[in-house]
Amino acid sequence: MSKILIIEDEQAIRNVLKSILMDEDPKWVVDEAENGLVGIEKIKQNEYDLVISDIKMPMKDGTEVLVEAMEYNPELQFVMISGHGDIEIAVDCLKKGAFDFLSKPPDLNRLLNTVRIALDHKSLKSSNKALKKENKELKKKVSKKYTMIGDSPELTQVKTMIEKVATTDARVLILGPNGTGKELVAHHIHEQSTRNKKPLVEVNCAAIPAELIESELFGHVKGSFTGAVKDKQGKFELADGGTIFLDEIGDMSLSAQAKVLRALQEGKVSPVGSEKEINVNVRVLAATNKDLRKEIDEGRFREDLYHRLAVIIINVPGLNDRKDDIPALVNHFAEDFSLNLGLENKSFDDKAHEALKEIDWTGNIRELRNVVERLMILGANPISEEDVKMYVKK
């Protein structure tokens, strides 16, 4: 339901315009204002979609109303009505934000066509604004949890790779030691992709028993094995239209690898115990801390699957390779613990940062996070080099 305001000092013209609009669409709500002062007050008190305003009026002319209304509500659509001598003023109104202007007396078809286009324009702008806000909030929500902290050359290279591949549907193999943030990379790829409205489904292949991995990935039908008391959708089907992240894929059994390969080749999966084929449209991201080339040589990983997955390879550096990022990471973790765990908000002095840089971080960022939490609990404020030496044993 659209709301329209007519601002016109001549009663007869107001009556004609209102009658025309209400006859055209009974769902339109049409209000009137006899001058600019009344018009601007009504604009401030109501949410109009469109204003049709005369230009030359006593007390406050249409140009003044337009300028004031635009400051109050930039989304409001204005159609100005001008006499033949007001064309230059009407053009100036367009520069100030008016949607269009009509000459007096307005042509009926031109009037209705302009009104409909202006209302459609308003609706489109509102929809775009709402969509941008939704996208911004979604991105903020996801990014806050999966923020990539640091600006070292090594991390910058990873970020650049993500930007290049995210908007494609290319499969990505993410390599790196445990605790480096491979999951983080997967989330950023999905977040920046065209699939971000659909789910990112994560599967930790190392945490699922070999005898259950196929059921987890492809689903099963009731009675297909002991414990299968009802039909179950697999992760591939749940990720349809979105992204599936196969973490620690180097730990997947050869049998499951064969089925994953078929899913990638044909875009179809078959639940365990069923001959039914289900079409799936998923983007596959995979990660591992293993040397898959070595795994292939030793017969534990399929070479054909490796080549399917490794269209793009992103190597995530260990923390020892990006120690310049440690101060930023430490401050980020400290703030997070303070906000979410209720710990005292403590700072780290420069010598504490330097002491942390000297440590051999075999556990990478995950280990650093644990150390920061320990120091936040046990250390003084500010946390010093002495605190690091006392509470961080290597």
UniProtKB/TrEMBL annotation:
Q: Which residues form the Response regulatory domain?
A: 3-119
Q: Give GO BP annotations, semicolon-separated.
A: phosphorelay signal transduction system; regulation of DNA-templated transcription
Identify the residues that the record assigns to the Sigma-54 factor interaction domain, covering every copy: 148-377
Coiled coil spans: 121-148
Q: Which Pfam families match?
A: AAA_lid_14 (PF25601), Response_reg (PF00072), Sigma54_activat (PF00158)
In its UniProt record, a GO molecular function of this protein is: ATP binding
Q: Which residues are recorded as modified (4-aspartylphosphate)?
A: D54
> Keyword annotations for this protein?
ATP-binding, Coiled coil, Nucleotide-binding, Phosphoprotein
Gene3D superfamilies attached to this UniProt entry? 1.10.8.60, 3.40.50.2300, P-loop containing nucleotide triphosphate hydrolases
Recorded hits in PANTHER family, A to Z, give: TRANSCRIPTIONAL REGULATOR (NTRC FAMILY), TRANSCRIPTIONAL REGULATORY PROTEIN
Q: Any idea what this protein is called?
A: Sigma-54-dependent Fis family transcriptional regulator
Query: Per the UniProt entry, what species is this protein from, by scientific name?
Result: Faecalibacter macacae
